[in-house]
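Pipeline run #58 for the internal structure catalog. This entry was flagged by the ingest filter as a single-chain record with no existing model, so it goes straight to prediction. Upstream metadata was stripped on purpose; only the residue string is passed forward. Reviewer on rotation: M.T. Logging verbosity set to normal.
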Amino acid sequence: MKRNVDDLVRKNMHKEQELPASIRSAFDQSYEQIRQQSKKKAKKSWLKPVSAAVAVLALSSTILLTNDTALAKLQAFFGINDPGLETAINNGDLQYIAQTQQSENITITLDKLFADAYRLGLQLTIESNHISKENLNYLSFEYRLFDAEGKEINAHVSDTKEIVGPGIYSGGEFELTDVKNNIATLELLEESTTTTAPSLEGAQLVVETVHFLNNEGGITSVDGEWAFDLTSASVVTQVYVAENSVPGLTLEQATITNGSMQVSYKIDGIDEDENDIFETALVNGNGGSFYAKSANVERLNEEQQTVISLVFPYSVWNEQQLLSLKVKGYEELKLVKKE
């Protein structure tokens, strides 16, 4: 079933609202979710501004495609500018699925899958007559993820669709790596800033909508069903604890896994600054700094405190495991492995 949504997208893009929300209206709701849980608690998820800017460029100009085979091996599957995934992939944590499904004259192959405790990465090859090397500006898809029992555990869909499951991932980031006539490769990387993702053994990924954006700004959306059976790779985790005390800052949780590290910390006050949050750095013993792309913020109004959760691009396989957390306005918090 084909739907043309040019007018809807243009309307949403010109609304006076935050950029992630407008992008979400057209493609996916994961860029920006603001949740009101109660008068005492309030949560919201943020996407790092630089990522939002990349999304704007994808909507307004032609995407730069890389076809260099020498770079392809190093950058295979979100390796570019992501040291956590690079290390995990080099360690053999990338799964090669190679399943192909057809629906509505579109063929989709799930080529590769990456899943650890806090991140999900998908690489798909999409074959369709809607894809033109000269006139494809952007490509995205909507999906639902079901566990081995058939229960929905995550949905990356538009606001108009019902979400049944609890939802795990947010901060969805699409990337086109290759485009030819009638065929393109598309990758999606998502993060779970607050919840440990369950095993994907026996899980199923169902793509239900594909969106094609041309250079003139027109969007064609095709509904169908492309279902893929998943298996779970070995997920390794290591918990860290605080070695020292920092006034006004408390470590809630710190867990490192195959290609990412989730850190939650609580600070005094409820007036968080987005720029300050994204300046929070995970620092290793060599002085290397790592920054998150998305954040979950929970304000505890009654306690006058804020809980901030981030996922850093750092791998459990890194040889250098001496770590610390640098939060703007606070002393350095040293992290050590929990025995």
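catalog note: The mean pLDDT is 80.
catalog note: The CA atoms of residues 11 and 82 lie 34 Å apart.
status: ready for reviewer M.T.
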